[in-house]
Amino acid sequence: MRTVFTFLIGSILLILAVKLIAGEQDRREFEAAKAEYEQSSYDEAARVTYVTKLAQIADRLVSEYRRSGQRNDELMGAINSELQKHPAPKDIDSKNLRQLLVGKWESPRRTYVYLANGKCGAEDGPISGNWRIQGNQLIQGDLSGPIILLNQDYFIYSSRGSVFFHSRVKE
């Protein structure tokens, strides 16, 4: 009995150590990305590289949350704060953004569908909402705000002081 107990305690400690190390790695990667951006030319290429790195870290944190229920609110808050500071330029090609948005996107809580006809909604509900993009602004029902990143992998925008993070559903 004592051997089983010792094994269980050891296993729990190992799992906790691995999670702490992974969390610390994410924190260091965040700090390195931030420092690299601060040394950059602050042009659009540097902004896209920076917010993409932040999106990759956030994606790992969201995946861990979906898998285990484990949240890392402090680091996610810091990432969201940085993302809000770096919206896409107002004169971005909104036609390209509209094409990129069409598809399924997973948020931390549910999957959303964006159709080419300007309709959207949760995958498990009615697709009856409306969306459009003007410049860098997503206008969706009563939400609107700047798109921070929209590419083949990530859709991140800000509205009402919050950051909304989505990753593309790969089918």
List the topology elements.
Elements: H1 2-38, H2 44-68, H3 73-84, H4 94-101, E1 103-106, E2 111-114, E3 119-122, E4 129-134, E5 137-140, E6 143-150, E7 154-159, E8 162-168
Antiparallel strand pairs: 1-2, 1-8, 2-3, 3-4, 4-5, 5-6, 6-7, 7-8
Helix pairs in contact: 1-2, 2-3
Summarize the structure.
The protein is an alpha+beta fold. 48% of the residues lie in helices and 25% in strands. Strand 1 and strand 2 (111-114) form a beta hairpin.
Description:
- The chain is of the alpha+beta class.
- It has 2 domains: 2-84; 94-168, Lipocalin (Beta Barrel), CATH 2.40.128.
- The chain contains 4 helices and 8 strands; from the N terminus they run ααααββββββββ.
- It has helices at 2-38, 44-68, 73-84, 94-101, and strands at residues 103-106, 111-114, 119-122, 129-134, 137-140, 143-150, 154-159, 162-168.
- Strands 1-2-3-4-5-6-7-8 form an 8-stranded antiparallel barrel.
- α2 packs antiparallel against α3 (73-84).
- The N and C termini lie far apart (47 Å).
- The relative contact order is 0.12.
